[in-house]
């Protein structure tokens, strides 16, 4: 039988053992998801049919390869909160090279000159300028950096100042890692999403988004009419550029869950993966 399949004895038993481990991982992850469903505010709202099996296969059969997870959602949906609490679960391993984070917000193009010429955010928005379309972000550079990290190279991400609109190309050095988390408004847009191993969408109701957004806008120097003008644009452009990604996401997560619960369930997932004997 093994000869008929072109398999050596080692390949046959190695493959069989891999399938047994994959099966154990799938069952462990399914159990965590079943427990999550019972919560008043579950973290996972939707999971694609093949996602769990694909994750298990990659963990077992592609141990040395990078795992790139793209996380998107509307402005103030909770993307950063989800990533930061996932990181807390990652770092409990206390090993270097476990994770690297690339944030779409760091790749905003420098528009400090335009802001200075307009004199204020309100006047800038009156010209029709928008921070809330893919054109405002250097997605090509971000994709190049993600591809480089997947290939094992280090990169230097830019750093963007949301008050002055200055982009500093000499931002932060990022090292390749087992898990790369990238989050932002457009990380799952066409032209970028094809390099993602897992696509995640954070869903949060509009009224909650609006409240969060105005609070954050104030911290970034936008209040009154300037904030109103930008939020109108945020809502309009989300319909075109962000909300369609709900349909193509491998997982949809709940932007209303607490930080504590995000960390709790991600801890369970990482522990399940650690405790399976490879």
Describe this structure in words.
The protein is an alpha/beta fold and 278 residues long. It contains ten helices and eight strands. It has helices at 9-37, 51-61, 79-90, 112-118, 121-126, 139-150, 206-219, 224-241, 245-248, 259-275, and strands at residues 44-47, 67-73, 99-103, 155-160, 167-174, 179-183, 198-203, 251-254. The strands form two sheets. A six-stranded mixed beta sheet has the order 1-8-7-2-6-3, sandwiched between helices. A two-stranded antiparallel ribbon has the order 4-5. Helix 1 crosses helix 2 (51-61) and helix 1 packs antiparallel against helix 10 (259-275). The longest helix has 29 residues, at 9-37. The protein starts with 8 loop residues before the first helix and ends with a helix.
CA-CA gap between termini: 26 Å
User: Fraction of residues in helices?
Assistant: 40-55%
Q: Secondary-structure element sequence? A: HEHEHEHHHEEEEHHHEH
What structural category do the secondary elements indicate? alpha/beta
Report the count of strand segments: 8
**For the residues shown, what is the average pLDDT?**
89
As an assembly, this protein is single chain
SSE arrangement:
Elements: H1 9-37, E1 44-47, H2 51-61, E2 67-73, H3 79-90, E3 99-103, H4 112-118, H5 121-126, H6 139-150, E4 155-160, E5 167-174, E6 179-183, E7 198-203, H7 206-219, H8 224-241, H9 245-248, E8 251-254, H10 259-275
């Amino acid at each position: 039988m093994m000869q008929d399949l072109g398999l050596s004895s080692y390949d046959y038993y190695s493959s069989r053992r891999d399938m047994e481990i994959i099966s154990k991982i799938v069952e462990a992850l399914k159990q965590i998801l079943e427990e999550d469903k019972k919560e008043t505010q579950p973290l996972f709202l939707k999971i694609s049919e093949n996602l769990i099996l694909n994750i298990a296969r990659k963990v077992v059969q592609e141990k040395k390869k990078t795992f790139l997870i793209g996380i998107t959602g509307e402005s103030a949906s909770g993307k950063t909160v989800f990533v930061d609490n996932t990181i807390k679960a990652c770092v409990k391993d206390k090993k270097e090279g476990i994770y690297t984070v690339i944030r779409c917000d760091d790749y905003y193009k420098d528009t400090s000159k335009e802001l200075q010429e307009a004199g204020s955010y309100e006047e800038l928005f009156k010209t029709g300028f928008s921070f809330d379309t893919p054109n405002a972000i250097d997605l090509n550079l971000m994709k190049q950096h993600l591809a480089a990290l997947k290939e094992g190279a280090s990169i230097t991400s830019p750093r963007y100042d949301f008050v002055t609109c200055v982009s500093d190309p000499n931002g932060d050095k990022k090292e390749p890692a087992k898990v790369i988390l990238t989050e932002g408004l457009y990380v799952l847009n066409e032209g970028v999403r094809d390099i993602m191993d897992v696509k995640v969408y954070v869903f949060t109701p509009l009224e909650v988004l609006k409240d969060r957004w105005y609070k954050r806008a104030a911290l970034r120097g936008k209040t009154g009419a300037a904030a109103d003008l930008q939020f109108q644009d945020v809502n309009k452009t989300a319909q075109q550029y962000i909300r369609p990604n709900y349909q193509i996401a491998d997982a949809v997560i709940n932007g209303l869950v607490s930080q504590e619960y995000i960390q709790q369930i991600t801890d369970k997932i990482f522990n399940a993966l650690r405790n399976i004997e490879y």
